[in-house]
Amino acid sequence: MLRLIATRGGRLLVRPPGAALTPVCSRASSHGEGEASTAVDMSRPLYWNRLDTPLPDRTFKDVLSEEDTALKQKEKGPWGQLTKEEKIAIYRLAFQRTYPEMKQSTGEWKTVVGGIFIFLGLTGLVVIWQSHYVYPPQPRTFGEDWQARQLQRMLDMRVNPIEGFSAKWDYEKGQWK
Predict the structure, then answer these.
(1) Beta carbons of 113 and 121 less than 8 angstroms apart
(2) How many separate helices (H) and strands (E) can be counted in the chain?
């Protein structure tokens, strides 16, 4: 039983009694460089910046500063009194990007095409390496001399003389019909 201290289960016994009940963000700060990690509350809706979802379930900024709160109060009044910059700031409280900003190309296609070319290049190198070091040399029957002699032999034997190979050869003139 004393060896349990060195195991995972034993470490639970050695910890202070309140350590198991502390939140993750406060314990994580002691392991890193002093920064506490924040946990995302998955019970609340998340903000998505997508073209097919014009109105996300929540606003972009949840926690408002004093300036943002004052701007939200001004928003409740007549919009004719707001300046263009204030209207844009109010929009940016609710949405991160506009539709033209979302539709702007990111250049990701260049990365995809580059990756495809790298993959094809590496595949070509593997094929060349295999043809030199893995595959045996071509058999002698693939050579042009052998194939010419094989053709002449088949014509001399009159292979398939009715509809096939020999039917297309003129034996008197020694050429193809």
Answers:
(1) no
(2) 7, 2
Is the pLDDT assigned to residue 68 strictly greater than 80? yes
Q: For residue 68, give every residue at least 6 positions away whose Cβ sits within 8 Å of its Cβ, in sequence order, or none.
A: 61, 89, 93
- Check pLDDT > 80 for residue 20: no
The residue with greater pLDDT, 123 or 162, is 123
Q: What tokens appear for 7 in the block?
A: 């195991």
- Do 70 and 90 form a contact (C-beta atoms < 8 A)? no
Q: Does the pLDDT value for residue 105 go beyond 60?
A: yes
Q: Of 74, 103, 99, whose CA–CA distance to 89 is shortest?
A: 74
Give the chain's largest Cα–Cα span.
Answer: 107
Cα 73-74-76 angle, rounded to 5 deg = 70
